[in-house]
């Protein structure tokens, strides 16, 4: 499928979220929908939990401090944002940066699955427990971080959320070490 066709399909999914009025309470208090960005032909899709304040204002995922750290880690493995696709499970900012609620994650999950069906990544990297829990139910991030998991034919790599590493210095090196495994995991999938 051509990149332009994939982008058109992604734009249609974005329009469907708005048309279907997903999570109207969240939508009402958010500045805008933060759908996702990057290469529709990416081999890797990164999935966080929900937009924060900066993301809500700019309409792009991972643009705050956690996003800067994500960019540094991407550069560390020879990639840039335009090489990958970055999104969140929940596409509107929850009030006061609270965790997304289970019903909010459930409401957005079909749209996230459609995004993944269009992009067809070789590797889905979940950032944080909310995104991991929605796609790999029943696992604990503290036990499985950095370990690739195959589930329904898709390879996932659960990682700690970059924001957690900013608050907890001990997690920072763990996340960097796990992140540096991505090229080897991709090579093994190929």
Q: Which features does this protein show?
A:
single chain, 190 residues, alpha/beta, Uracil-DNA Glycosylase, subunit E, 6-stranded mixed beta sheet, 10 helices, 6 strands
Descriptive notes:
By secondary structure, this protein is an alpha/beta fold. It has one domain: Uracil-DNA Glycosylase, subunit E. It contains 10 helices and 6 strands. It has helices at residues 3-19, 24-29, 53-58, 65-76, 102-119, 129-135, 141-144, 162-167, 169-179, 182-189; strands at residues 37-38, 44-48, 85-88, 123-127, 149-151, 154-159. Strands 1-3-2-4-6-5 form a 6-stranded mixed beta sheet, sandwiched between helices. It starts with a helix and ends with a helix. The mean pLDDT is 95.
Query: In whole angstroms, how far apart are the ends?
Result: 19 Å
Name of the CATH class = Alpha Beta
List the total number of helices.
10
Instruction: Tell me the count of domains.
Output: 1
How many individual β-strands? 6
The fourth-level CATH homologous superfamily is: Uracil-DNA glycosylase-like domain
Percentage beta strand = 5-15%
Mean pLDDT across all amino acids: 95
Low-confidence runs: none
Radius of gyration (CA) equals 15 Å
Structural class: alpha/beta
In summary, what is this structure?
The chain has 190 residues and is α/β, with parallel strands linked by helices.
Secondary-structure blueprint:
Blueprint: H1 3-19, H2 24-29, E1 37-38, E2 44-48, H3 53-58, H4 65-76, E3 85-88, H5 102-119, E4 123-127, H6 129-135, H7 141-144, E5 149-151, E6 154-159, H8 162-167, H9 169-179, H10 182-189
Parallel strand pairs: 2-3, 2-4, 4-6
Antiparallel strand pairs: 1-3, 5-6
Helix pairs in contact: 1-5
